[in-house]
Request: fold
Amino acid sequence: MTTPAESKSPIMAAPAVSSPPFAAQLRRSLRRHPSLFGMPALLIASLAITVAIHPQFSDFDLQSLAMGALPLAFAAAAQTVVVISGGIDLSIGSVMAVANVLAASTMENATFGESLALAAAVMLAGAAIGALNGLIVVLSRIPDVVATLTSGFIWGGVALIIMEKPGGGAPPEFLNLGAGTLFTSWLPTAIILLVVAVAVIWIPLRRSKLGLQFYAVGSDRIAAFRSGVNIDRTRFCAYIFSGLFSAVGGLGLTMTTGIGAPLAGVYYTLSGLAAVVVGGVSLAGGRGGMVGPVIAAFVLTLIPTDLIFLNIDPNFGQVIQGTLIVAIVMIGGFADMARNRR
Amino acid sequence: MGEASLLLEVRDVAKRFDSVVALKAAALQVRAGEVHGLMGSNGAGKSTLVKIITGVFRADGGQILVKGATRSFRSPAEARSAGIVSVYQDPALVPDLTVAQNMRLAGASVDAVRKWLAELGVVRLDFSILVRDLPYPTLRLIDLARALASEPAVLLLDEITASLPADLSERIYAMVRHWRERGNAVIFISHRMAEVADLCDRATVLRDGVTVGVTERAHGSEERIVALMLGAETARAVAAASSTPASFRAPRDGQAALEVRGLRRSPLLNDVSFKLYPGEVLGVAALEGQGQEELFDCIAGSRRYDEGAIFAHGKELRLRHPADAIRAGIVLVPANRLLALLQQRSIRENIALPAFGGIRNWGPIGMRAERTRVDSAIARLQIDTRAGSELRRLSGGNQQKVVIARWLASGFNTLLCFDPTRGIDIGTKRQIYVLVRELAAAGSAVLLFTSELPEIALACDRAIVLFGGRVVAEMPVSEADEATLLRSAHGLAPQARAVS
Reply:
């Protein structure tokens, strides 16, 4: 007897056919990136609800929404890069605080041109802090949760050293980058800034080999290693981008508030993580994109606004907001389960 | 044979993982234009050697020479640039990326991969599909095509045909021959002896991390390979064991404690049926990855099966959770003790845990009743409790006894032991087998898988052999000597007598 006669497997008979028709292609990308379609729908729905309960929704309301969502969207973007590559960064809020107070303390008497140069310097500083985080995680093998949580305490302290209490400022032209409008009062510059920043950083990254490596390492570290990916270098780079996005978020905080506040950033670590989860990025790594979390930041900013419009006690508001987040994530989870069952 | 004609040479490579020695002195010489078989039973060190050659692990000692020059690779990517590429036992494709993205990740040309896939008979594969959505056999072919696309001088195939249907295996054999014709070398690892004999020009045999022999022609030297794999020492031990009079009872007629009928679970379980009677120890012999893990998990209720039925005392079971199996009196002793025990809790709590798993036990736990039951289990198994009360301070053997003790304390009628003596010293091993015999004598049914074939003769009444997810042989223990088991486990027909 040689190899026993094994049943012919039917699964090999027909591999997937190439160049499927448009409808099938659409169905597949819907299946693969549910948040790409789900999140805009969720945003439109929550905008519709806002207008329904607050019919006098004006250009001013839109602008304050955009300004409120701007730092959160960057916090979510920073977290997304790390989470996709299979890690987590709990120092994002503190890095934002450092960037915020650095900008506000140095730009107070600067010209617009100088403030732009200083902004670039702050972004570099953010990337350097991210690199430090990455080094600690990769070299020491301390779990990323512990490493970034503790480094978050350190950078929170540094922010307080740089600026003891809220203060400072920046030239009005610089503030206008995130707090003004362009062409029409219905187009806040915050949205333009967000779209430009994410597009300039994320889209080339997503298409580069490094971006592919982020997804590979987050999806299956062993398979990635065997495919020739340098795991440590990839994770290290993810933290650099996280630091960069955090610094941009801190600059956004300066633009929208006009000052530096050493404690303002801290809140964004966890709410940014909430936006990542709501935005359909798997905390297990390897799945998700940038569009979902950024839109989720707007949805999460709308919820408390709506609760204020509804005159709900702010203490209840927090309970309702938390419940809504859990509900959204659960719906995503059930959709995933249905998808996997086929 | 000049060294210049060697594409790859391994000299005295050693590797240990903590206290476990995986390789002691592995040697391998691979010439251009040959298919070289790498043989050895479970744990002989084949996969470790492959991983050292391709830079996944670093050797503790020894040398690796590529075309005569000493090399030491720090990653699979480095090995690949030197022309050494491996297809590992499990797919090395990232599930959340598309096929095309995976190729880009590894720096493989999509066109070349497509060309090799076509040679392998896969013509219309959509490269924009996610890897997680592709069936397992397709992944293996993509793995192989990707390896071929980098035109390796030395191609290592580690168990690539292990769970592939026969028609796909044929395509892979054809490709291996083609690769040899082009003047390259292929190192081929397989548990299917017939396959190795057919395909390989020469074969190197590893035993316990040492190269024990090279056969110049694989074809026709199957017996010699088996003898090399066995080793003189085990052969003697087997002879000693079989000289002791068999005191085991033949299986009785009557109702089976456990009956498995036509069990299937894609892709590894293809049709397993057997009966296990009360008072009997049934041994399961199999090489790695022949479906034994899936079989035990299905019976223990921790994995679902696609088809087939499992009966306990004539009643069909619906197993959706391990609790269902435990309720039916079927309990599992896994190979990895860490999976079954709470390392930081006391021995007492560990033993008492499943006894109070029932839903009716919501109230406070009766401490006195717990103590009586636990103490009697500890006494019966002679667990050495001096080491302290925390479980992690116990030796591996004693931990394994705790796993058995917990089931003694809570009661069972069928015990599933999956490789219970893995990594345990000889003295405790013997105690565990004596215990298994005692349990059977007291009327329990025991299903025992062991990766060490001589142990079947020591502890079992009857043995079945799994190969490719099927039961290929069944025999009373008197016939289940190691050579017979090894031959069946490699898919060879049993022969009259081993030559050793």
In short: Residues 1-19 of chain A have pLDDT under 50 and may be disordered.
